[in-house]
């Protein structure tokens, strides 16, 4: 299956995690998995809060920061992707607006279908719907999508996904359309047809076409890096004002036609995003739900310290979305050098880590579960395997024993985490200290975290990141995290453990070649257990995405693809007359 | 040139260091023939507030010195988690009232980790005071050296040093300290913080000392020593240095609360010591978001910080009144 | 006087140049790579090189510094082709994060920081000098002692503690004010003031305490001067003595610290702005640090230094007005 797509989506999710916007959601599990049954935060799993919204009013989004990028060629961080593609621009293909499993289903958006492959999957053709218009009433053309795909190559337009460069044929040395050069591998025979010529067969190109890179940008609107501040709308809303880091106001795009759009409902008349607020204050305001805050939702996670103000109060807890996710967050050990090139030391780490403390640091068992295997529950029949049966708080005595056997009783290792994960890092630190392992913590700014840990010359002994599947198949997971052939000197991702194991690589190829999906699925689970024995990384936890919504909010649910953030395309208000501003 | 002969203390970022300027109080009637130390002792006996401050200062210094033993006495090391003391389902709230204060945890526990607050506050005292004292030492040594050199040698030395003082004082110090601390990664944070804080503090001392030196330079006994063939070094150390020491000591004491506040502000902004090392500022920063759900967690380190700054300020005020009746102004 | 001004202005330019050079060195020599930060998550070596070239980071440091300096006076163009970015005079660099020239960002934030600093300054001058002068005139009375105890206590409270307590008391418990969100003075003066009331109070308490202590001291000193005695002896009303003579010379040292404090706060209220969510320069700076947006960090540092240097100059000039003994 196409690796790059998953990689693209999954990395975005992982990045969102690092920014403190944790996780992607796993609707399949819901209340049927063990611990969540009694979990006070799991009550709203797979539910839509507030019923069906009424058209009109102003919906406020309270955020602790500005959007990373809204320019569709640069938008690649999770909540911003949800926001951009649901409200401001449409893509060739998109995901259904549904909570739970339905949300990961693909539906055509700008295109009439999910795209037609030919030439053995190396050529993909999309036909555009008729009557789709920009905010000025001009029609959306195939050339505009080609143009934005080309923009993703421009070195000035940083931050976006680079998979167009990975997939498209004949892109060597191409540096974007800003200096007037165009790509031959994207063809637009007429205004409504776009053809992508790929280097190699890509079966999931429809998935790829959901990313903001496949949104239209007309060349006449090009403003280089300034486009970020005023993307030209093809979606249901357009930007009225955008004060960086302060406030964004969206009003209806009168030229958007509901008839051409099967996904977006566009209930509110206006979206107001207030930025730069303190995280705790955002929670407090939505909990109080007074005035305009009653019609507000939060952009980033509820802070763990707000839990005592929410969980014991049923009327407030009813306004908490906490979709669990399909990602497994792991502590990666650097297998390429001492001390973690020794499998015995790595095994000792499995026992030394105190997952319980890490979970508490992450907001407690209400918002996290202990991970006992690599594959997230959705990929292993709803429940993770537990082959080692280590208690959640670890077994330091056993760890000490193993370390003694390995001749490494006193270890000093480095751990890099992104700033928001500092508390978890301290939980690792004290857990490992019980087994005589001293940890030196380095906190790295979220923006630079993936540069630091992806560069083999700067990566520390341990790193802490998650990995999310794009859709329920082990092929979107294990090969990205544990195939030694994916390791790169710079920009290394997925295999942060730098795990190179012949047997694993051989088995990955064998399973990828299996025709029977069921058999393959079991084989992935077995391989998971095999890799656990070699302990390249330690699975730590499975996260949820806690988001509070105001009492006047309706139609809110955590979308499974967009990391369990609220689907901005369908959220609205119960009573528009109560919203102000 | 300028008349900016202020007694303003190092501008460690006005926002960061609340206590900056020594407030001038009138000259006391000084009994002739008493040494400064005798005066100091007499003054201490006279003012109860000063006695209390001195007590608090000594207590904190002792607490910092004895931190490991004190936390052993409490039964918890500062980095040790106590899962039994918190409720994981409520975002790690401490169990029990008042932030989990109990015979087990004398000052309660940190939410989420359950680390013992007493052990952490005590170790935090060590870190906060160490950085404050070390930075003060740097400032005083560098400032005194530069001030004496500028005042005594005059001419080009004075011009260069005075320009350097003006330049350093023009630096937006808080902003600079934050920036320097956040870009430097692989170094000992305590050493780094000390030197960065020290870097911007010395001109204040230097100005005071320079002024004092200028006035001492032409006293008869200095002239006599010079005529008698004493070396510059000898004059500086034997005649000038003792003369400036009074104001310097007073000034130093008044520097300390500013240094403590600066350390706390930097740690508060997240560019301070590395986890799990606590400092008061770092503890307050972590606890701010809990001020409503676990007020004791926020109040305890804040009270310690407040008391330390207050006590050093009162003590400094008193010492200045005694040792440098003109409030450091020249 | 003119000669003095020219000399001071030259010195001012020199100081700013030195600060720019030091800042530049710190941020461009240290091992952080702004190109990698701007490039994004999957950045091929080739693309990284392109980004580096685009940002002008492939040149030697001194050349980058020269470009930066010329940019201030002549403006610069970043990138090539039709959509290259023009950064007009005075170009303090270009923020990759915000896709805007640093100058525009600074000017956009300055009203917020200025509102905060100036409003707080008015408040603390009133409170601080009022308390200080009152205490000085009633030296050694109960009023004096109470005021000074209050002042030393308030001066020992960190601004983040006061701020949090104000938010808790005034907003959360009493519900007297809405959560602060900055409104421009020109849009709605009332909302402007009510949103800034708490941040002003938090800052003003701290500074007022400092100023009370300082002004009490200098006031007592001033009132002990011989000319005050002379004035009194001439039968001048006490009120005139205090206002015309005492205050005038007593306030001179206050002027110095006031200049430095106000100058420093204009671009340095990092803590207050971040606690109250005010989109001012301090928060811009902090955000830029977190995202390794070095041009913004450099720009804020220079602006802050500029304010401090100018404040010093203004204070020195004002001395001539306040203190008749000073002549240039």
TrEMBL record, chain A:
The lineage of its organism: Bacteria, Bacillati, Actinomycetota, Actinomycetes, Kitasatosporales. The gene is oppA1. The keyword Signal applies. GO terms for biological process: peptide transport. This is Periplasmic oligopeptide-binding protein. PROSITE patterns: PROKAR_LIPOPROTEIN. One of its GO terms (cellular component) is periplasmic space. Residues 25-50 are annotated as: Disordered. Residues 1-23 form the signal peptide. It comes from the Bacteria. Keywords: Signal.
From TrEMBL, chain B:
Residues 1-27 have a biased composition (Low complexity). InterPro entries: BP-dependent_transpt_permease, MetI-like, MetI-like_sf, OppC_N. The chain crosses the membrane at residues 49-70, 127-152, 164-184, 190-209, 240-260, 296-319. SUPFAM superfamilies: MetI-like (SSF161098). It is found in: Cell membrane. One of its GO terms (cellular component) is plasma membrane. Keywords: Cell membrane, Membrane, Transmembrane, Transmembrane helix, Transport. It is a multi-pass membrane protein. Gene3D superfamilies: MetI-like (1.10.3720.10). Pfam families: BPD_transp_1, OppC_N. It comes from the Bacteria. GO terms for biological process: transmembrane transport. Residues 1-34 are annotated as: Disordered. Belongs to the binding-protein-dependent transport system permease family. This is Oligopeptide transport system permease protein OppC. It comes from Streptomyces lavendulae subsp. lavendulae.
Automatic annotation (TrEMBL), chain C:
Pfam families: BPD_transp_1, BPD_transp_1_N. InterPro entries: BPD_transp_1_N, MetI-like, MetI-like_sf. One of its GO terms (biological process) is transmembrane transport. Keywords: Cell membrane, Membrane, Transmembrane, Transmembrane helix, Transport. PROSITE patterns: ABC_TM1. It is a multi-pass membrane protein. It comes from the Bacteria. The chain crosses the membrane at residues 9-30, 114-137, 149-171, 191-210, 254-276, 296-322. One of its GO terms (cellular component) is plasma membrane. This is Dipeptide transport system permease protein DppB. It comes from Streptomyces lavendulae subsp. lavendulae. It is found in: Cell membrane. Belongs to the binding-protein-dependent transport system permease family.
């Amino acid at each position: 299956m196409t690796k790059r797509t998953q990689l693209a989506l999954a990395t975005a999710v992982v990045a969102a995690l690092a920014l403190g916007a944790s996780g992607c959601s796993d609707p399949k599990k819901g209340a049927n998995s063990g611990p969540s049954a009694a979990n006070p935060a799991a009550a709203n799993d797979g539910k839509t809060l507030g019923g069906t919204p009424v058209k009109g009013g102003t919906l406020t989004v309270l955020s602790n920061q500005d959007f990373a990028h809204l320019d569709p060629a640069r938008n690649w961080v999770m909540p911003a992707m949800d926001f951009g593609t649901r409200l401001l621009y449409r893509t060739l293909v998109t995901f259904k607006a549904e909570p739970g499993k339905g949300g990961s289903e693909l539906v055509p958006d700008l295109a009439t279908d999910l795209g037609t492959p030919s030439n053995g999957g190396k050529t993909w053709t999309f036909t555009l719907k008729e009557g789709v218009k920009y905010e000025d009433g001009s029609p959306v053309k195939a050339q505009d999508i080609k143009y934005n795909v080309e923009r993703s190559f421009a070195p000035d337009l940083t931050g976006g996904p680079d998979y167009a460069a990975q997939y498209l044929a004949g892109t060597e040395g191409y540096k974007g359309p800003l200096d007037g050069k165009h790509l031959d591998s994207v063809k637009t025979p007429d205004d409504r047809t776009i053809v992508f010529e790929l280097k190699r067969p890509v079966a999931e190109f429809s998935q790829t076409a959901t990313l903001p890179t496949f949104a239209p940008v007309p060349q006449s609107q090009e403003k280089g890096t300034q486009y970020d501040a005023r993307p030209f709308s093809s979606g249901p809303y357009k930007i009225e004002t955008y004060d960086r880091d302060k406030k964004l106001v969206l009003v209806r795009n009168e030229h958007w036609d509901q008839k051409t759009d099967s996904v977006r409902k566009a209930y509110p008349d206006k979206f107001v995003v207030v930025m730069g607020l303190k995280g705790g204050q955002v929670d407090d305001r939505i909990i109080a739900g007074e005035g305009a805050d009653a019609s507000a939702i939060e952009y980033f996670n509820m802070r763990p310290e707000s839990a005592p103000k929410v969980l014991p109060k049923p009327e407030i807890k009813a306004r908490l979305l906490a979709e669990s996710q399909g990602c497994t967050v792991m502590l990666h050990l650097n297998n390429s050098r001492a001390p973690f090139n020794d499998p015995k030391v790595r095994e000792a780490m499995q026992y030394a880590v105190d997952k319980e403390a890490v979970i508490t640091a992450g907001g407690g068992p209400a918002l996290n579960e202990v991970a006992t295997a690599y594959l997230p529950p959705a990929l292993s029949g709803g429940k993770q395997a537990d082959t080692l049966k280590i208690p959640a708080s670890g077994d330091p005595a056993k760890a000490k024993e193993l370390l003694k056997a390995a001749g490494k009783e006193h270890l000093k290792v480095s751990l890099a985490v992104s700033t928001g994960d500092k508390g978890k890092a301290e939980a690792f630190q004290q857990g490992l200290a019980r087994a005589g392992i001293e940890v030196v913590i380095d906190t790295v700014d979220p923006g630079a975290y993936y540069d630091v840990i992806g560069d083999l010359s700067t990566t520390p002994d341990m790193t802490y990141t998650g990995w999310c599947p794009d859709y329920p198949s082990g092929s979107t997971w294990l090969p990205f995290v544990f195939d030694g052939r994916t390791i790169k000197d710079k920009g290394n991702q997925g295999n942060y453990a730098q795990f190179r194991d012949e047997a694993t690589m051989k088995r990955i190829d064998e399973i990828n070649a299996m025709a029977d999906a069921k058999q393959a699925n079991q084989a992935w689970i077995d391989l998971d257990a095999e890799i656990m024995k070699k302990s390249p990384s330690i699975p730590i936890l499975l996260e949820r995405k806690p988001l509070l919504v105001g009492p006047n909010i309706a139609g809110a649910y955590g979308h499974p693809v967009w990391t369990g953030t609220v689907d901005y395309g369908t959220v609205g208000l119960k009573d528009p007359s109560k919203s102000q501003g | 040139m300028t008349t900016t002969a202020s007694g303003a203390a190092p501008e460690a970022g006005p926002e960061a260091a609340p206590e900056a300027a020594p407030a001038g109080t009138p000259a006391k009637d000084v009994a002739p023939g008493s040494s400064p130390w005798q005066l100091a002792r007499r003054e201490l006996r006279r003012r109860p507030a000063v006695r209390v401050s001195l007590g608090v200062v000594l207590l904190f210094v002792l607490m910092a010195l004895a931190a490991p033993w004190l936390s052993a006495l409490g039964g918890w090391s500062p980095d040790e988690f106590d899962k039994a003391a918190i409720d994981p389902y409520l975002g790690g709230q401490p169990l029990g009232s008042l932030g989990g204060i109990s015979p087990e945890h004398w000052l309660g526990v940190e939410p989420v980790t359950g680390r013992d607050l007493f052990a952490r506050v005590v170790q935090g005292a060590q870190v906060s005071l160490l950085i404050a004292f070390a930075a003060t030492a740097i400032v005083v040594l560098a400032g005194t050296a530069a001030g004496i050199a500028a005042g005594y040698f005059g001419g080009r030395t004075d011009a260069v040093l005075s320009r350097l003082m003006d330049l350093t004082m023009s630096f937006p110090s808080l902003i600079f300290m934050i920036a320097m601390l956040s870009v430097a990664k692989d170094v000992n944070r305590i050493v780094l913080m000390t030197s960065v804080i020290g870097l911007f503090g010395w001109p204040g001392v230097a100005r005071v000392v320079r002024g004092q030196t200028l006035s001492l330079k032409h006293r008869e006994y200095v002239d006599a020593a010079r005529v008698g063939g004493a070396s510059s070094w000898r004059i500086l150390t034997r005649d000038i240095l003792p003369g400036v020491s009074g104001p310097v000591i007073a000034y130093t004491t008044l520097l300390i609360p500013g240094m403590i506040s600066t350390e706390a502000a930097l740690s508060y902004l997240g560019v301070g010591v590395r986890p799990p090392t606590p400092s008061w500022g770092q503890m307050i920063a972590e606890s701010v978001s809990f001020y409503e759900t676990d007020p004791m967690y926020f109040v305890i380190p804040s009270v310690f910080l407040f008391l330390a700054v207050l006590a050093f300020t009162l003590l400094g005020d008193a010492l200045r009144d005694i040792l440098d009746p003109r409030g450091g102004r020249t | 006087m003119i000669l003095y001004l020219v000399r001071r202005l030259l010195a001012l330019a020199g100081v700013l140049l030195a600060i720019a050079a030091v800042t530049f060195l710190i941020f461009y020599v240290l091992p952080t790579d702004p190109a990698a930060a701007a490039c994004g998550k999957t950045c091929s070596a080739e693309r990284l090189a392109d980004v580096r070239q685009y940002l002008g980071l492939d040149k030697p440091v001194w050349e980058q510094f020269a470009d930066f300096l010329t940019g201030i006076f002549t403006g610069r163009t970043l990138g090539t082709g039709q959509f290259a970015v023009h950064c007009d005079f005075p170009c303090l660099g270009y923020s990759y994060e915000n896709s805007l020239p640093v100058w525009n960002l600074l000017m956009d934030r300055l009203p917020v920081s200025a509102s905060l600093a100036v409003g707080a300054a008015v408040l603390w001058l009133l409170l601080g000098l009022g308390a200080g002068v009152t205490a000085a005139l009633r030296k050694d009375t109960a009023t004096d002692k109470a005021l000074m105890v209050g002042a030393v206590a308030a001066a020992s409270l960190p601004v983040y503690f006061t701020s949090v307590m104000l938010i808790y008391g005034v907003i959360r418990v009493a519900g007297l004010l809405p959560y602060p969100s900055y409104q421009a003075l020109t849009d709605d003066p009332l909302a402007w003031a009510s949103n800034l009331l708490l941040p002003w109070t938090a800052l003003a308490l701290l500074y007022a305490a400092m100023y009370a202590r300082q002004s009490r001291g200098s006031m007592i000193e001033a009132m002990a001067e011989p000319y005050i005695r002379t004035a009194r002896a001439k039968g001048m009303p006490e009120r005139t003595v205090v206002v015309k003579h005492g205050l005038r010379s007593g306030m001179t040292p206050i002027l110095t610290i006031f200049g430095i404090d106000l100058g420093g706060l204009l671009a340095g209220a990092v803590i207050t702005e971040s606690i109250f969510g005010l989109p001012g320069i301090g928060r811009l700076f902090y955000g830029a640090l977190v995202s390794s947006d070095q041009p913004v960090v450099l720009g804020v540092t220079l602006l802050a230094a500029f304010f401090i240097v100018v404040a010093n100059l203004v204070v020195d000039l004002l001395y001539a007005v306040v203190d008749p003994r000073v002549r240039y």
